[in-house]
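Record type: monomer structure entry
Structure origin: computed from sequence
Chain ID: A
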Amino acid sequence: MVTLYGIKSCDSVKKAIKFFKENTIEYTFIDYKNSPLECATIKAWLNKVEITTLFNARSTTYRNLKLKDMNLSDTQKEEWLCKENLLIKRPVAELNGAVTVGFDIKTYEKEFLS
């Protein structure tokens, strides 16, 4: 079963949910706005994907926190992901140990339909 992480109001998360429903793929949704993620989960993802993939430098949260001005190292970005989950690029989907970040229809078809 797919575990999908994100926030309900995110358009990309809505697209992922629609994809799973249309393709009758079972999934569990974890809204990390309501249930903050443990740092261990984020660290596990970072063992599978690059920090530049997971860290959303285009988000409103990133701009509001003025993180661009801080010129963050990868370690600092990881620390920020742990304390501010809204900096995580959405959605994050886990299946059989694999991690998929963001929504791209071709990637989802390849990862979840084959």
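Annotation 1: DSSP finds six helices and four strands in the chain.
Annotation 2: The radius of gyration is 14 Å.
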